[in-house]
Amino acid sequence: MTGGGRAGRPRPGRDIDLYSTPTGTRAVGNPVRRSILAALREREYTFEELVVLAGRAKSTVSVHLQDLATAGVIGSRPDPEDSRRKIFFLTGDLVASVSPEERVVDDLAAYAGMYRPGSGDPNAFYRLAFRTIRVALMQEGVLLDPLLSRAGERIGEELYPAVADPDTGAFCANIARFWEEHRLGRIEVAETEPLVLLVYDCFECVDLPVTGKPACAFDSGILRALFSRHYHRPAEAVETRCYSMGSDHCRFEIVVEGGGEPCDGTGMLEGK
């Protein structure tokens, strides 16, 4: 069993990670515990491996693991190669992080904008609501990327039948057409090996504050689900450029486990 999310070394300080568990959400603020959980988001670990990773005494790591297990954040099972050893794993996923250092101090009104009735865009109000909630959370240092990514995956699973095509070029064209029809942005295929998609006027981030970091976790989740279904094996949509990084577009590189065939063409894909 493996956990969700991505591993990463948490910063010390007042940062808090929120994890889902079978009985509810749990907050984890201790830096050692956050480091252990960050590692378990990547793969399962034995007790001995976690001791080395944490850089603490066995007794200290044991207490942390017991507390995390009691809270329902992690579970364990016997090592099939040595029943005297335990293998630890996450029972849920990273939901969000709260970091005072990541707070956006700009005025919310600068990004929320105004809703203009009669604009002719039926989705304008919903984009405004999404953006306002996102920026309000960013102002408090609440980072919802893990949750948004999983929500995007669920949407991608639902969306796949509407855009599916065995031909990769036609599949990309269907995605681009869906994005334009629903005013989500304009998609271009920039490269084919590896497959690279550019998104202009991205609904998720075009009006977000510039933080220097990618912000399209929701889009990434949708694309991950779509291309995983298309290639019949795990795929990632890695965002390397974003409006929130100061770029004039978002750039997603589609990385398929074991490789995958490229799209059949380049340039802008328009609905026909």
Number of helices: 8
Q: In order across it, which strands form the biggest sheet? A: 10-11-9-8-12
Question: What's the gyration radius in Å?
Answer: 21 Å
Low-pLDDT parts are: 1-12, 262-272
**Mean pLDDT across all residues, rounded?**
84
- Large-scale geometry: globular
Residues in helices, as a percent range: 25-40%
Query: How many structural domains in the coordinates?
Result: 3
Which fold name fills CATH's third level, the topology of the largest domain? Answer: Muramoyl-pentapeptide Carboxypeptidase, domain 2
Helix-strand category: alpha+beta
Helix-strand string:
EEHEHHEEEHHEHHEEHEEE
CATH superfamily of the largest domain: Trafficking protein particle complex subunit 3
The CATH architecture category of the largest domain equals 2-Layer Sandwich
Give the N-to-C terminal Cα separation.
44 Å
Protein name: V4R domain protein
InterPro entries: ArsR-like_HTH (IPR011991), HTH_ArsR_DNA-bd_dom (IPR001845), V4R (IPR004096)
Domain 4-vinyl reductase 4VR: 194-256
Region (Disordered): 1-24
Describe the structure.
This protein has helices at residues 31-40, 47-54, 58-70, 109-112, 124-139, 145-163, 168-181, 217-231; strands spanning 16-21, 24-28, 45-46, 74-79, 82-90, 94-98, 142-143, 186-192, 195-200, 235-241, 250-256, 267-268. It is an alpha+beta fold. It has 3 domains: 16-95, Arc Repressor Mutant, subunit A, CATH 1.10.10.10; 101-143, no CATH class; 147-268, Muramoyl-pentapeptide Carboxypeptidase, domain 2. The strands form 3 sheets. It has a 5-stranded antiparallel β-sheet with strand order 10-11-9-8-12, with helices on one face. Helix 6 (145-163) packs across helix 8 (217-231). The longest helix is centred in the middle third of the chain and has 19 residues, at 145-163. The radius of gyration is 21 Å and the shape is globular.
